[in-house]
Amino acid sequence: MLVNKFIAHYFCMVNLKTGILLILVLLLSLEIQAQDCKLAIRGKIIHLENNEPIEAAYVWVVEAQDGAVSDENGNFTVKNLCSGTYTITIQYLGHKDVRDTVELKSNTFSKTYRLEEEAMGLQSVEVHGHRDAVQTTTAVSSLYGDQLEESRGENLGESLKRISGVSTFSTGNSIAKPVIHGMHSNRIMIMNNGIRLEGQQWGSEHAPEIDPFLADEITVVKGAETVRYGPEAMGGVILVNPAPLPTKTMSKTNLNLIGGTNGQMGNINMVHVAGSDKIKGLGYRIQGSAKRSGNVRSPGYFQENTGVSELNLSSSLGYSSSKLGVEAYYSLFHTDLGILADSHTGNLADLEAIIANGRPFADGEFSYEINNPKQRVTHNLAKLKSHYHISESWKLNFQYGFQLNRRLEFDKRRGNLNEVASLDLQLYTNTIDLYVNHTHKNELSGTWGVNFIQQANSNVPGTGVTPLIPNYDMMNTGIYAMEKYSKGPLEVEAGLRFDFRTLHTARFINQELKTADLDYQNFSAFLGGLYHISPNLTFNSNIGSAWRPPNVNELFSEGLHHGAAAVEIGDPNLKSENSYKWINELQYDGRKTHLELTAYVNPIRNYIYLNPTGEVYVSLRGTFIVYEYTQANALFYGVDFAGSYEFTDQISGYLKGSIVHAKNTDEDNYFPFIPASNIDWGISYDFAKDNNPRTNKVTLSNVLVAKQNREPDFDYAPAPPAYALFNVSYQKQLSIGNDKLNLGLQVQNLFNTRYKDYMNRFRYFTYDMGTNVLLKINFEF
């Protein structure tokens, strides 16, 4: 109780502390600008042939006799320069040198440099594949390197919680959907190696069908990105990108072994990457992973039927030359997920009793067995992409993607029907993207394109149950254009898009065929800018209009959604959502300090949400909570903050958090399932000696989550109290000849705290996971 009171008081102070943080950052910027010779030259270095960022390019400022090396995103900064004229040279092996003259006045100079490939007879020259750099003026955060390695073994949603402003909407401990600024499901687009991931993502318990082991980098774009990606990106985009394919002779293998005590989880992943020694520019990658875990343990008992079984594969083959690039990619994701047995109750009295009790009545026992209710999901994705350089400044791109998603949900049924799925869906998706990039040596660049999406969803007959959603065919065509102008410390970009969508549905209800034909169309646009206030301080602002037509489940759901253990009722009269998201970010990068502050406001007209009705549905299969899809005008707004500080060469700390408000402006109350305010902080001690690049550190962290007091007028149970979780981790890196061994030990929920997360739909029935000890071994050879 004392901890909870402290947390509640702490969150009352959040707004005050955020204001103090703002003032601190502004004071730092004023201090920097007041000093003499504190100007900077900063920029971004990318490949001319494919817009991929160049890491480790060498930048030299001749007159200052000082330089820098570009980072993994192609960015560089040369600081502590006086006003005057400077000559810059940029060098990267296998590319033509760039020489530029820069006039520094009172502001930071910023520019994007595009390096052209130069034919050289060296075996060490490496031109990477076809992954475009993320170039946008909206807020962007990424997981890569050590942070990504720390997240191995977690699902995508849990991994992304390391980024401020990102949380999860979960159904138990094994199903988690990413949430960006309160948005999830069909408002967040996930890109798997450049292809929009299309599964049955509308369900609250439908986790993304993607293996995080695929990724070399995971990027979160927090702004409204419907112009770049289409209507489903109104809440943000998650880019899951593997490493670029090699184009020189090389061979590398990466092995991950992970074990966890809670659920007795085992996870293995292996990826092999190689470049041809006979055909210059040809490379391939093969990857596979498997995961198995049993019943999750909460403090004091097991959650029965919460096991997971997963098997994933992917492969890529690519060729790149100075004029032409081609890549073929395939991935397979397959999982069996147990659904908490106690979420399916026998009658109304049982449902009321378990909600009142707050946990299962039986302590359960450990088992790897997965029984009904359960899910079985298989997702196939194939991609073919190519690009051709029309000229030095113009590039033509083509991409085709095919996906087949098969979702089966099994419920508790009698006799032989127990082996028959209650929900059996097949979703076919074809996507075509055709676009041109123009990148000039002056300040202007842009992209013009068209994309086409065709979907066909079928209910496989034989379930013996009326389908939750109808069969449907959907087609969407989008035409868009984006332009970017960079000059000195300022970057400005704008874009415009038009989408047209048709939807045709059909299904039998009580032996009567019901059909619907719907059309949707709309424009979307954005305008953004980035300004380098000083060498250390950057401000960017982006405002974008967005829209999203209602999804089939929101329109036509009618019946029991077995995996969610709930009855869901759609509304065929729902209108399209329309929004304007204005997002602003301030970043400070000092020698020891890094600060980020993001603020946003997002009014949404006709916001669609799943609302608890207060009713229950009683049937032979059990008693279930009833939800209905409805809409209202909404106002989302909030703040993210993140910072880190190096106290000494060995001691460092971090702090991050977020606050989200989601107001129903029609009824003057709040929407359900919006993340509570939270803070995550930690301190690390690095045992590695000076000039030793290898990691050898221990980190103690603490997650504070407030009670969600901004909740709707009705819910089946009150929001759970605030909670505090402590975690500890240790990372050690060893060199074995030319190979690298990474060891990790993590203890999550160190004190086995009993808690419930408001964003867990099964909080009505159970507490969350207790202590979990993870051992992680990564071997690169």
Secondary-structure blueprint of this entry?
Layout (H helix, E strand, L loop, with lengths): L1 H11 L1 H21 L4 E9 L10 E4 L4 E4 L5 E7 L2 E8 L6 E7 L4 E7 L24 E5 H6 L5 H5 L5 E5 L5 E5 L8 E4 L2 E2 L20 E5 L4 H4 L7 E5 L8 E11 L4 E11 L6 E12 L2 E3 L2 E3 L4 E13 L3 E15 L9 H10 L16 E16 L4 E17 L12 E17 L4 E16 L11 E17 L2 E20 L2 E21 L4 E12 L3 H5 L1 E4 L4 E4 L7 E13 L3 E27 L2 E25 L4 E14 L4 E2 L7 E9 L9 E10 L17 E14 L2 E10 L23 E9 L1
Describe this structure in words.
With 781 residues, the chain is mainly β. It has a single domain, classed as TonB-dependent receptor, beta-barrel domain (Maltoporin, Chain A, Beta Barrel). The chain has seven helices and 41 strands. The strands form six sheets. It has a 22-stranded antiparallel barrel. A five-stranded mixed beta sheet has the order 8-13-14-11-12. A hairpin with a 2-residue loop joins strand 33 (593-619) and strand 34. The longest helix has 21 residues, at 14-34. It is globular, with a radius of gyration of 26 Å. The chain starts with a helix and ends with a strand. The model is unreliable at 1-35 and 120-133 (pLDDT under 50).
